[in-house]
Design a protein that fits this description.
This protein has about 260 residues and is an alpha/beta fold. The protein has nine helices and eight strands. The strands form two sheets. It has a five-stranded mixed sheet, with helices on one face.
Length: about 260
């Protein structure tokens, strides 16, 4: 049978819409592949179809995943779907297929001998490590209007996954987290639910205006970090291992 490649939007909703459509076709799952974005290198003797993102269908798949595989597998699959890896959609799709078919006994994500399950596990772990890092490395700055703004550029599309952490800790603050690489941001109005906004910020980085207190705190924090450093014990290699260079562009103490 001719191979069918479904082209999905690069999002959790887009990938799960592709999974839903793949099941609707009632074909052998081994003849179907999922791919995010537009096709670049077309494969011979393969049919390509675009998948329209449908939030209701994606929610149905998510409910099935949570009910059949449990919270741990649900989290790992979601973390894999926000990875930057171009093979994530196909790995998630075939992992779900294996779980629903009852191919494995016990916990789905324990079966690392499967190349698809193993791929999802690796992607989830890499995404989880970046989330863990940025919960500590993300820096907020107070703008003149009183709102807090954090800029960053993560490898993986994790903004929606870190927002609950900050919304829980800053419930009475107006703040935003801006992903410079993907050009969208999450906004948290004081005392309300946060939401995502597609597009760039209404001002550039050079136009940001900070409060006087914020500027003083930035200066004090940089001075504090310099004063506690033991220069005789500097170890740049270990520091890069514990704090990747790509995070430092957005950290106050490295300005």
């Amino acid at each position: 049978m001719e191979e069918l490649i479904l082209l999905c939007e690069d999002s959790i909703e887009g990938i799960l819409s592709g999974v839903y459509q793949a099941y609707e076709l009632h074909r052998d799952h081994e003849t179907i592949r999922l791919q995010t974005g537009e096709a670049e290198n077309y494969r011979l003797f393969a049919e390509y179809r675009d998948v329209k993102t449908d939030e209701e269908k994606s929610r149905k798949v998510l409910r099935t995943v949570y009910r059949r595989f449990g919270e741990e597998a649900y989290t790992q699959l979601c973390q894999a779907m926000v990875s930057y890896d171009p093979q994530k959609a196909d790995a998630v799709y075939h992992t779900i297929v294996a779980g629903i078919s009852g191919q494995y006994r016990g916990k789905l994500m324990d079966h690392l001998s499967s190349r698809y399950v193993n791929k999802v596990f690796q992607l989830s772990r890499n995404t989880g490590i970046e989330i863990h890092h940025l919960l500590g490395f993300l820096r907020f700055r107070e703008l003149r209007g009183g709102a807090l703004l954090a800029r960053y550029s993560p490898k993986n599309d994790i903004t929606a996954m870190i927002m609950p952490h900050f919304a829980d800790r800053l419930p009475n603050e107006d703040f935003a987290v801006y992903d410079e690489g993907r050009k969208y941001y999450a906004v948290h109005p004081k005392g309300k639910q946060w939401y995502l906004v597609r597009g760039e910020l209404p001002f550039s980085e050079g136009e940001e205006s900070y409060t006087q207190k914020e500027q003083q705190y930035q200066m004090l924090y940089r001075h504090f970090c310099q004063s506690i450093a033991i220069h005789e014990r500097r170890n740049p290699g270990l520091q890069r291992n514990m704090l990747p260079l790509r995070f430092r562009k957005y950290m106050t103490e490295f300005d």
